[in-house]
Specification:
This protein is an alpha+beta fold. The protein contains seven helices and three strands, in the order H-H-H-H-H-H-E-E-E-H. The chain has three domains: 36 residues; 54 residues, no CATH class; 57 residues, no CATH class. A hairpin with a 2-residue loop joins strand 1 and strand 2.
């Protein structure tokens, strides 16, 4: 942008010729003409390169990446493993590991395989909000093994928590248990 301004200023107030401006600023005459015709530089077009050595491997890479969708994370293909398999299984393949890595990254983006899960930690004000969890636990009471429905209540940023359990699972009893527990944690009981 600054170069275009400099070219236009030099043409108008300086040398005054296209060839003179190009010589003085060390640019091509075509660039001087473009700067004179338009004050804003034209956007450059991305270069589309033909991948001659990888043309035979594109289908193989796509198959490997589609297989990876169902595979567990530890068993998915790395770029190096794909390159090793290409060298071993395709006799006519002569591409480099770097080119396979770049093509694999582009294909993963196109197939939507690069999306990652994001973890956002929860943060709460001190002793304002609480967390209540319900779970099942086994206990031996009076020599008999029984299943208990347990509730745990704790305030955020508070060390104290209460746990209570009952021998039966009643949906309507859960809020009552958690209210009693929170009063206990806060210190009202």
């Amino acid at each position: 942008m600054e170069l275009y301004e400099q070219i236009r200023r030099e043409y108008e107030f300086g040398v005054g010729t296209i060839a003179g401006v190009a010589r003085k600023l060390g640019v091509h005459r075509r660039m001087v003409r473009q700067a004179l015709s338009n004050a804003v530089p034209a956007e450059s077009k991305p270069q589309a390169r033909r991948l001659r050595k990888l043309e035979a491997a594109i289908g193989f890479i796509d198959r490997a990446l589609s297989e990876d969708r169902q595979a567990p994370p530890k068993q998915r293909h790395t770029a190096r493993r794909i390159w090793q398999r290409l060298c071993a299984e395709l006799a006519e393949f002569s591409g480099s590991e770097r080119s396979v890595r770049a093509l694999g990254r582009r294909r993963r983006q196109q197939l939507g395989l690069l999306e990652r899960e994001v973890f956002v930690p929860q943060s709460y004000e001190w002793c304002v909000e609480a967390q209540c969890d319900w779970y099942e636990a086994w206990a031996v009471l009076g020599g008999e093994r029984i299943k208990l429905q347990c509730a745990r209540a704790a305030l955020w940023h508070h060390r104290r928590a209460t746990i209570s359990g009952s021998g039966h699972d009643r949906q309507q009893g859960r809020p009552e248990i958690s209210n009693v527990q929170l009063r206990t944690v806060v210190g009202e009981d």
